[in-house]
Amino acid sequence: MIRLEGVGKIYGGFTALHRTDLSVRRGEFLTLLGPSGSGKSTILNLISGAVAATSGRIDIDGRDVTDVPARERGIGMVFQNYALMPHMSVFDNVAYPLKIRGLPKAQIAEKVRDVLARVGLTGFEARKPRQLSGGQQQRVGIARCIVYSPKIILMDEPLGALDKNMRDQMQEEIKRLHTELGTTIVYVTHDQEEALNLSDTVCLMETGNVSQTGSPEELYFAPANMFAAQFIGESNLFDVVRGEGGVLRASDGTLFWPGADAGPGSKVLVRPEKLRIVDEGQLPPDRVNVLSGEIDHVSFVGGMTRVSVRTAGGTSFVAKSISERAALRVKPGDRLHVTWDAGDVIMLNG
Ligand code: ADP
After folding, report:
1. Domain match, 249 and 334 both
2. pLDDT (tens digit, 9 = 90+) per residue, 51-106?
3. What's the domain range around 163?
4. How are strands ordered across the β-sheet holding 75-79?
5. Is 1 in the pocket of ligand 1 (CB under 6 A)?
6. Same domain, 240 and 94
7. Shortest-distance Cα residue to atom 21 of ligand 1
8. Does ligand 1 lie within 6 Å of residue 11's CB atom?
9. pLDDT one-digit tens code per residue, 138-192
10. Best mutation site among 11, 43, 51, 211 for ligand 1, i.e. most ligand atoms within 8 A of its Cβ?
């Protein structure tokens, strides 16, 4: 549905986006994820036509649109700041794109009624944007976008101004709308949880480059590089070298058996929730895939308890497990032993 080939953007002498290839399938939900300034909005603006590419070619639905103006690209936008017209009612805001397309009044009324019902705003037609909560205003923004059935919807941090509960609720609504409408969506966020929850495909951006593209599961369980490993989820990372019998050895003496080979610059990664807290007697006798240390810090974060531990070798690791109802078993100063399955060791080759 969307294809970028060697598309780059330079502002003055500054490269905001290095030459990039990117494809979005029809009906796909693709999220551009990355820290601030990594080039996410630049890609969105290049697709919408708000910004002209310095190099490369953009195709939409099989047609070269590189030089086609924004209004002729058939794309809908949803913005973080809602961009509603403050003096217009909810009805008029949503009706606006249909009015400028010259639809008959009766048809406009029917379509507006239909989309307001879809976003749960039936009965709010006469209100002005300032009489709505942030979440309701963004629902109007979404309704105004979907009312004319664009083939592609671009969303730039649409939930960025909302509080956590509202963001969670709106994520579910956006997912439902995507399933119902089947529209191709390109979504921008710096929030990894939001990206993992919403997307078919996540495109991770780093300083104007695509770092990794894949399903949420691929990014989490098979990060392609250090940046991906550190940006998505929490990681315990160790530099390793090959030891005897194919076991990998970290500088603090920790031994790993990932069943893979280490080269120069290799690291291994184990996610905190894969570490199983065990009693010393339950540790494997060969001491492979084992860490022990003194607890620095215990934080109870609702469903999960996060424990940071310092090893005798001076390194630290983090273990996370489902919180237990009974009083917590672990406290700072305690000794903690953890082990993990070989299948949970992720190799990052340097
Ligand atoms: P993100 O959306 O990931 O936060 P952007 O795509 O907005 O990042 O910006 C990427 C880089 O390009 C940033 O360093 C930003 O300062 C720069 N940039 C964006 N727009 C302009 C512009 N109009 N003029 C100059 N630099 C810009």
Report:
1. yes
2. 999 999 999 999 999 999 998 998 999 998 888 999 999 999 999 999 999 999 99
3. 2-228
4. 75-79, 152-156, 184-189, 29-33, 201-206, 209-214
5. no
6. no
7. 11
8. yes
9. 999 999 999 999 999 999 999 988 888 889 999 999 999 999 999 999 999 999 9
10. 11
In a shared domain, residues 98 and 214: yes
> Rounded to the nearest whole angstrom, what is the distance from the C-alpha of residue 42 to the centroid of ligand 1?
6
The 10s digit of each residue's pLDDT in 198-213 is: 999 999 999 999 999 9
Q: Which two tokens stand for residue 287?
A: 């001491």
Q: How many domains does the chain have?
A: 2
Q: 223 CB less than 6 Å from ligand 1?
A: no
Residue 58, pLDDT score: 97
184 lines ligand 1 (CB under 6 A): no
Q: State residue 163 phi and psi, 5-degree precision.
A: -75, 170
Check whether residue 10 and residue 84 sit in a common domain: yes
At 119, which amino acid appears? Answer: V
Residues 114 and 21 in one domain: yes
**Could you tell me the pTM of the whole model?**
0.90
**Sign of the torsion formed by the C-alpha atoms of 5, 218, 1 and 118:** negative
**Atom 16, ligand 1: residue with shortest CA distance:** 37
Q: Following CA atoms 6, 11, 17, 19 in sequence, which dihedral angle do they give, to the nearest 10 degrees?
A: 20
| Percent of all residues in the chain with a pLDDT value above 90, rounded to a whole number | 75
CA-to-CA distance for 57 and 62, rounded, in angstroms?
A: 12
Alpha-carbon 204 to chain mean position: 8
